[in-house]
Specification:
Helix content: 25-40%
Largest sheet: 6 strands, parallel
Strand content: 15-25%
Strand order of the largest sheet: 3-2-4-5-7-6
Domain Thiamine pyrophosphate enzyme N-terminal TPP-binding: 2-119
Radius of gyration: 24 Å
Distance between the termini: 60 Å
InterPro entries: DHS-like_NAD/FAD-binding_dom (IPR029035), THDP-binding (IPR029061), Thiamin_PyroP_enz_cen_dom (IPR012000), Thiamin_PyroP_enz_TPP-bd_dom (IPR012001), TPP-bd_CS (IPR000399), TPP_enz (IPR045229), TPP_enzyme_TPP-bd (IPR011766)
Number of strands: 20
Domain Thiamine pyrophosphate enzyme central: 197-328
Domain Thiamine pyrophosphate enzyme TPP-binding: 392-528
Protein name: Thiamine pyrophosphate-binding protein
Length: 538
């Protein structure tokens, strides 16, 4: 006999889950009892706030490509995790949020009258791919299968499972998830559209200035090498999206940066053919829809719902990204194709060191972070005034090397997301790069960082303000600003947790301090980088 809690945990293990991020509640006791029983197979990471737990799970998923799992109590616990689900929805991150529901909810009582009351399905409907309500124990295996199928099928995204509370404590026999269910989670490829492939080959052979836009789907299918092979074959520059930075090494000779960078936009304007691979077009990438695509374009998609979204294409190919790229390469080889397009080497040699204009402070930060970068490092960037330039000028060696909140733009994202990333890659070095405002929003999770003694370097740029907001307010000539902050002494804050810390007053010293901090192996380290000109803290 096994309880519903045991069945749930065993199903998660069966689907490859090794970490769960959460905050316990009394309603979840049967699940935690099962987690204790299976602690060798699945680790529970205790957060200080459900919002932090959700962002840890989301960061774990971004860093690993595997679904992140978050476990929270109903009502306020689930509501606290909403921002993380929103982040997963806009970033197309595979995330599973699990919560429970009051037993009386089905009796017709309004959620507002129930203990921990919230209609989760309705509350999360707009930010999830699916919400699954489990009212009977016998339905639990199929619900978990459906959740993992939906999370990873087509364009990834978040799914919510709500389980009736009494189910978790009920006992039963059987209820195994059939082996074929697990195997069927491997998405089958679509039938090849021979005519579309031939049209695409003809367009590529006729192009003089082809360019490739490698979107997030390239990373989801680990097809970066195929993209670089195609770029080398047809002599095309590769630009990426805000969600796909790093799917192709930014040190590759054909890498040209983000589509919404000044340089990337210039390439789009010059190209006579764009090969757009699972781009997930969005407002950020397309500069509020002001970027126009070349007259001729090829769109390659795994998700049929993305075909023709926002921008139309000359021809579209639906199927597995890796399969289609491999077939295009094969057909170009067989056709004895000899490219005669633009001089990509000369084109990219003209790429400026920085895409934008930076003051000395920002340039020193970018240089220091690039100096510490490598295949073994993950940079998790928050939303702050010194963080935005990194989208364009921090160079990433490989997929998962750069994690951020690009579209929902959630301030306070970096610290919890970095914790998740570190659990996904315990062998890699992780840097949190945030502002003082963002750090304080998620600062309770510094306790989580210390609890697990994670080798993470936390860099706080301290300008005593929500700097991006203050700059906008000052620019618009307001009579006053509402963005100045009263900050703690960050070295003493770290010291209260027995964490080593240093304050850097001169940005010229930042590179040296950061380099030394990244090499440490004795737990977390905090660097306060003072940006002069900010308001004094109270």
């Amino acid at each position: 006999m096994r309880t519903g809690g045991e069945i749930l945990v065993e199903l998660l293990i069966q689907y490859g889950v090794t970490h769960i991020f959460g905050v316990p509640g009394n309603q979840l006791t049967p699940v935690y009892k099962a987690l204790a029983k299976h602690r060798e197979a699945i680790a529970h990471i205790l957060a200080r706030h459900e919002g932090g737990a959700g962002l840890m799970a989301e960061g774990y998923a971004k860093a690993s490509g595997k679904p992140g799992v978050c476990l929270v109590s109903p009502g306020p616990g689930a509501a606290n995790a909403y921002t993380a689900v929103l982040e997963a929805f806009t970033s197309c991150t595979p995330l599973l949020l699990i919560t429970v529901q009051n037993n009386d909810h089905e009796q017709g009582y309004s959620a507002r009258r129930l203990f921990h009351g919230l209609d989760h399905a309705e509350a999360f409907a707009s930010v999830t791919k699916q919400t699954i309500v489990v009212s009977e124990l016998e339905a639990l295996p199929s619900a978990v299968f459906e959740a993992f199928h939906r999370i990873r099928n087509q364009t990834p995204g978040p799914v919510l499972i709500e389980i009736k509370e009494e189910i978790l404590g009920q006992s039963t026999v059987g209820l195994e998830s059939p082996e074929e269910d697990v195997l069927s989670l491997q998405s089958a490829g679509s039938e090849r559209d021979e005519e579309a492939l031939e049209r695409a080959v003809a367009l590529i052979k006729a192009a003089k200035r082809p360019a490739i836009l490698a979107g997030k789907g390239v990373g989801d299918e680990e097809a970066g090498d195929l993209v670089t092979q195609l770029a080398e074959k047809i002599q095309a520059p590769i630009i990426t999206t805000i969600l796909s930075k790093g799917v192709v090494s930014e040190f590759h000779p054909h890498a040209a940066g983000l589509i919404n960078s000044n340089y990337g936009k210039g390439i789009i304007e010059q190209a006579d053919l764009l090969i757009s691979i699972a781009p997930l077009y969005n407002q950020v990438d397309m500069r509020h829809w002001q970027i126009s695509l070349p007259e001729k374009s090829i769109q390659i998609e795994k998700d049929p719902m993305e075909l023709g979204q926002v921008y139309s294409s000359t021809t579209a190919i639906l199927g597995g990204i890796a399969d289609i790229l491999g077939e295009l390469l094969l057909r170009l080889d067989k056709s004895e194709f000899t490219p005669d397009p633009w001089d990509v080497q000369q084109l990219l040699e003209n790429k400026p060191v920085y895409d934008g204009q930076h003051n000395d402070f920002s340039a020193a930060i970018i240089d220091a972070l690039n100096g510490s970068a490598g295949p073994e490092l993950i940079l998790v960037n928050d939303v702050h005034v010194e963080g935005y330039p990194l989208h364009y000028d921090y160079r990433v060696h490989e997929r998962y090397g750069y994690i951020h909140s690009p579209i929902s733009v959630g301030i306070g994202y970096a610290l919890p997301a970095a914790i998740g990333a570190k659990f996904a890659h315990p062998d890699k070095k992780v840097i949190v790069f945030c502002g003082d405002g963002g750090f304080l929003l998620s600062s309770p999770e510094f306790s989580t960082l210390m609890r697990y003694r994670l080798n993470i370097v936390v860099v706080i740029v301290n300008d005593h303000a929500y700097g991006t907001i203050r700059r906008r307010q000052e620019r618009d000539c307001w009579d006053f600003t509402c963005a100045d902050l009263a900050n703690p002494d960050f070295r003493r804050f770290a010291g209260a947790y027995r964490c080593a810390a240093v304050t850097v007053e001169e940005v010229e010293r930042f590179a040296e301090v950061l380099s030394e901090a990244v090499q440490r192996e004795d737990g977390p380290f905090l660097i306060e980088l003072v940006k002069k000109g900010g308001s004094a803290s109270a």
